[in-house]
Write a structure and sequence with these properties.
This protein is an alpha/beta fold. It has one domain: Rossmann fold (3-Layer(aba) Sandwich), CATH 3.40.50.300. It contains 14 helices and 6 strands. A 4-stranded parallel sheet has the order 4-3-5-6, sandwiched between helices. A two-stranded antiparallel sheet has the order 1-2. It is globular, with a radius of gyration of 18 Å. The N and C termini lie far apart (43 Å). It binds 3'-phosphate-adenosine-5'-phosphate sulfate.
Length: 293
């Protein structure tokens, strides 16, 4: 299938977006959430796929093996806001789900979450990743994903990230918006990519207690093994190889999976400018990230 030209960014209620995430807006906003729904919310490149796979295994690894072996992860965990011509929308896929609970992926900033999720007290697992590794990962993703705007060169991309002119808007506003929301609701678990890299099994235990799951130590160990970076990279149902918009000759979707790869991309000058700007943008929050382990 021939791909349409790359989409362009536009301002959508104060957030940079592309049409693929706004065309279905009314249906997204009118979605009927359920109390047992679990939203996996992230700014892009924070470890969304990793968390989707972890949750899918925690809930459904006892199901017949066909689920894991032949159903792509993006069908098991629909992407709420996506609507691309020629493909079922996230809402269509959500309506097709027959499993409970429903696991739902979203990159929406907190103010765009359909109100039904709050009314139904659905749970949210938010994963955040430090800004420097996020922008590097996003840059390589935008290079290889023809459904994203043209990234341009690294220097201008970095500036655009600092200006919040990315699909799904400003990283700074996304991570702090969800952080603030978490202070007033017990239904949000706020996790960090860096913590997941440091000790996946520990974070899995936090996840299980938040979700009220009494997962056995053996299952936790098995899940931890299955979601190791190299295992996911080789897993055709989870490594993005089913996505027709991805050009793997440019970059893999499972690229490095590390904390600190930003050091291979930022020049000394870019780093100084970034840090200075970061201090200003993040001065009113107590949210802290690790950029090295
Ligand atoms: S997306 O497109 O927004 O849904 O991307 P997302 O899944 O959020 O993020 C992709 C980055 O997460 C890394 N990743 C992992 N790191 C460690 N362990 C595991 N298992 C894992 N799975 C995915 C992936 O490699 C991308 O990061 P980079 O830095 O580009 O490698």
């Amino acid at each position: 299938m021939e791909l349409p030209p790359r989409p362009t960014l536009f301002d959508f209620h104060g957030v940079s977006m592309t049409k693929y995430f706004t065309d279905n807006w009314d249906n997204i906003q009118n979605v009927k959430a359920r109390p047992d729904d679990i939203l996996i919310a992230t700014y892009p490149k924070a470890g969304t796929t990793w968390m989707c796979y972890i949750l899918d295994l925690l809930y459904f690894s006892q199901m017949p093996p066909e689920r894991q072996n032949s159903v792509p992860l993006h069908e098991r965990v629909p992407f709420l806001e996506i609507q691309m011509p020629g493909f079922p929308s996230g809402i269509d896929e959500l309506n097709e789900l027959t499993t409970f609970p429903r696991l739902i992926k979203t990159h929406l900033p907190v103010q765009f979450i359909p109100k039904s999720f709050y009314e139904q007290n659905s749970k949210v697992v938010y994963v955040a990743r430090n800004a420097k590794d996020s922008v590097v990962s996003y840059f390589h993703f935008d290079r290889m994903n023809m459904a994203q705007p043209e990234p341009g060169d690294w220097n201008s991309y970095l500036q655009r990230f600092m200006d919040g002119k990315m699909v799904f808007g400003s990283w700074y506003e996304h991570v702090t918006g969800w952080w603030e929301k978490k202070q007033t609701t017990s239904n949000i678990l706020y996790l960090f990519y860096e913590d997941l890299v440091e000790d996946t099994e520990r974070e899995l235990s936090r996840l299980c207690s938040f979700l009220g799951l009494s997962t056995s130590a053996e299952l936790k160990r098995q899940v931890t093994e299955k979601v190791l970076f190299d295992n996911m990279k080789n897993n055709k149902m989870a490594n993005g190889s089913t996505d027709e918009a991805f050009d793997f000759t440019i970059s893999p979707f499972m690229r490095k999976g590390k904390v600190g790869d930003w050091m291979n991309h930022f020049t000394v000058q870019q780093n100084e400018q970034f840090d200075e700007d970061y201090e200003k943008k993040m001065k009113n929050t107590d949210l802290q990230f690790r950029t090295v382990l």
